[in-house]
């Protein structure tokens, strides 16, 4: 072969190897995992877990003339494990957020996590378990909305999305000894 042919052959071989090295099948694992590395474990866990727990038919009671309101709906666990909710937060930023239950006909803050059993649902309703927002500086009117996040046992936080507000008649709730939280004589 002539010197020119050898140079051309070497040039074509180098170009072929360079192109082969750029093909998707030959990328190394560190390049392929780079996009995943930019996504934090918490983000992956939260998005996966958010699909595991949904809040259906959720509604916030409008509170145009009071400093408290409540959130109702049905929490649905789509997993094969119990989900324990220890608290919640909203974009409304109330000073006090509590999970309430009914004990002996009286509403009170739950002393243990709210558990949504594996593959089941748990209703939050007036006169029953519900999320309570108290000592609110801002009112929320019908047609407005708030964002809701729940805190799980173990510290994980799940974003359950936007909840719409509507006018609802007051329930027949009894808050007993909850004086000091603006609960005296208030229905929600």
UniProtKB/TrEMBL annotation:
Residues 24-49, 167-188 are annotated as: Disordered. Transmembrane segments: none annotated. Residues 1-20 form the signal peptide. Residues 37-49 have a biased composition (Low complexity). Gene3D superfamilies: PCu(A)C copper chaperone. PROSITE patterns: PROKAR_LIPOPROTEIN. InterPro entries: LpqE-like, Lxx211020-like, PCuAC_sf. Keywords: Signal. Coiled coil: none annotated. This is Copper chaperone PCu(A)C. It comes from Corynebacterium pseudogenitalium ATCC 33035.
């Amino acid at each position: 072969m002539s010197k020119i042919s050898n140079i051309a052959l070497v040039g074509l071989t180098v170009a072929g190897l360079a192109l082969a090295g750029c093909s998707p099948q030959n990328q190394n694992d560190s390049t392929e995992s780079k996009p995943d590395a930019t996504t934090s474990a918490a983000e992956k866990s939260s998005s996966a877990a958010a699909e595991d727990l949904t809040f259906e038919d959720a509604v916030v009671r409008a509170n145009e003339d009071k400093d408290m309101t409540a959130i109702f709906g049905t929490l649905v666990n789509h997993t094969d494990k119990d989900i324990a909710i220890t608290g919640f937060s909203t974009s409304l930023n109330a000073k006090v957020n509590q999970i309430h239950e009914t004990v002996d006909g009286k509403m009170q803050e739950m002393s243990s996590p709210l558990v949504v059993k594996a593959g089941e649902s748990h209703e939050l309703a007036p006169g029953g378990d519900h999320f309570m927002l108290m000592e609110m500086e801002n009112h929320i009117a019908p047609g407005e909305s708030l964002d809701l996040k729940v805190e799980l046992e173990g510290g994980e936080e799940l974003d359950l999305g936007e909840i719409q507000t509507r006018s609802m008649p007051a329930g027949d709730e009894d808050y007993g000894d909850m004086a000091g939280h603006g609960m005296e004589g208030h229905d929600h």
